[in-house]
Description:
Largest interface: A-B, 42 and 32 residues
Strand order of the largest sheet of chain A: 1-2-3-5-4
Helix content of chain B: 25-40%
Structural class of chain A: alpha/beta
CATH architecture of chain A: 3-Layer(aba) Sandwich
Number of helices of chain A: 12
CATH class of chain A: Alpha Beta
Number of domains of chain B: 2
Oligomer: heterodimer
Number of domains of chain A: 1
Structural class of chain B: alpha/beta
Strand content of chain A: 5-15%
Shape of chain A: globular
Bound molecules: thiamine diphosphate
Largest sheet of chain B: 7 strands, mixed
CATH superfamily of the largest domain in chain B: Thiamin diphosphate (ThDP)-binding fold, Pyr/PP domains
Distance between the termini of chain B: 48 Å
CATH class of the largest domain in chain B: Alpha Beta
CATH architecture of the largest domain in chain B: 3-Layer(aba) Sandwich
CATH topology of the largest domain in chain B: Rossmann fold
Radius of gyration of chain A: 19 Å
Number of strands of chain A: 5
Order of helices and strands of chain A: HHEHHHEHEHHEHEHHH
Number of strands of chain B: 14
Amino acid sequence: xxxxxxxxxxxxxxxxxxxxxxxxxxxxxxxxxxxxxxxxxxxxxxxxxxxxxxxxxxxxxxxxxxxxxxxxxxxxxxxxxxxxxxxxxxxxxxxxxxxxxxxxxxxxxxxxxxxxxxxxxxxxxxxxxxxxxxxxxxxxxxxxxxxxxxxxxxxxxxxxxxxxxxxxxxxxxxxxxxxxxxxxxxxxxxxxxxxxxxxxxxxxxxxxxxxxxxxxxxxxxxxxxxxxxxxxxxxxxxxxxxxxxxxxxxxxxxxxxxxxxxxxxxxxxxxxxxxxxxxxxxxxxxxxxxxxxxxxxxxxxxxxxxxxxxxxxxxx
Amino acid sequence: xxxxxxxxxxxxxxxxxxxxxxxxxxxxxxxxxxxxxxxxxxxxxxxxxxxxxxxxxxxxxxxxxxxxxxxxxxxxxxxxxxxxxxxxxxxxxxxxxxxxxxxxxxxxxxxxxxxxxxxxxxxxxxxxxxxxxxxxxxxxxxxxxxxxxxxxxxxxxxxxxxxxxxxxxxxxxxxxxxxxxxxxxxxxxxxxxxxxxxxxxxxxxxxxxxxxxxxxxxxxxxxxxxxxxxxxxxxxxxxxxxxxxxxxxxxxxxxxxxxxxxxxxxxxxxxxxxxxxxxxxxxxxxxxxxxxxxxxxxxxxxxxxxxxxxxxxxxxxxxxxxxxxxxxxxxxxxxxxxxxx
Lengths: 316, 341
Ligand SMILES: Cc1ncc(C[n+]2csc(CCOP(=O)(O)OP(=O)(O)O)c2C)c(N)n1
């Protein structure tokens, strides 16, 4: 497969869902960036401003039973999959009401109800876990797909090849989603990868390479890939080209890339599409923005009100 | 060989010498080793980054011998080993020791075994440097200290310097050594300063240092734990014989045994996991070899036997502090066996 055309026949409900999730991720990330310098969150944060379309377009097609395995850049994909905002905020605030009870921190999020069996901060390893979920489904554990979600630099780890190979050999119901923001930490892709990611994957399974700043394109390609994986057609590979607007870690803008809102902002592009096709009014867009701000206010209030975990209950 | 041009067993500075941070002491050892020996090169993920591994690799005089790598720790360890077997002296650098775990196959099955497997006919002049970090909610995969686990593997030397002077002298010794060395640097020590001679020097691998003299209790503590234990001794003017092993393996058991024979009591403070770890090893060895001298059961103060938590209050309770070390010392000095694990 090559670049897929965005599906301009998308229904209003679906477009609104995508917009809502992307806005939730964006505004939450922006709020984290704003609060971070005050030290209320004692944990490293890997933000995904600019990358919202990838996880959102993907998760639109995932069910709660589908198992999504993440790396260190967790917040956006976890929210897209359904992690309740207050549980994320409470985890970042190190509270016992957080999704990992304050034990995990920003890089280790869990939500069993919504198909998030955990995330890992050691780059690469969690790619194999998505394959394990696919294997479990194959062996009768349930009707779900496994999803391995990782960055471009994770393709440098041997576990990437090993995982793709095994999934392909056994035709497992697995989706590999590479969120390619063009950078490792500060190393550009040209310095960390001699290989073409899609080229490598395409030797083992069907692939799609998509503009990951276009949520309709991601939504479209993800829809097809997920239904193929579900339908017993083996593993699928989605390569989503996107941009990381922020530094690798922390609340600051990245000075290594140029951002052009018209070209690069997935939210701007979707809002423009929806407005021009009469799906939303400017008023509705503004209302959505402020509704989400209130949701974030409430989540922060919840986190602030929540107790800190009791060290005496920490079992050896 | 260029390495015969400078002395081993350099005496500790008496004071008044030039002060350097721990970080810059590490940097200077690498820089001078590279100048001295064109076979020395450094390789690692972000080793060539402008921040230079927290400053420990910035502005080296041979930047052409500093190579960045992809996130491929396992293969890169094999690459470094292959280079060491082919005439070079690599320093493989990791920003966190947790990333070594990705390279366990190469480190344990290859690097550690290569000499024994061929009856030591080959030299493996390979140094694996890694930084130990923790705090700020980094969580269970970015806060570990793993020297005890690696020390269990025959074929690896394990060094854990606590002072700038030791950092420079032991790193130079590690680079000079013809066997694989794991060199663990604690990030919390990076800004500490101390007297460091300007010229290149080595310290013997396998020789402990006394950080504090006393007769009531022997305390063995490596790396950051040594500095915290020293603080605890000084805060309360405790009658403690504080030994920093400096190298976990080979271990300077003679110095530890001699001290225990004097004090009759032992506390090992180790910022690592407790089970079958370094602290357990020291307690076992002392019990085996100086049982008669002991007047109280040897004690351990370590991390709890569980993964690191993230939230602030949990972190603060998880990690020992100078205060908690002081308490454990006072209890032992008072003659009450303290249960600390
Ligand atoms: C095995 C391992 N090596 C190094 C690191 C340090 N590290 C954390 S994130 C990162 C960059 C990852 O880039 P990519 O996989 O493209 O994901 P992105 O951060 O761009 O989302 C690095 C080098 C790590 N966490 N794990």
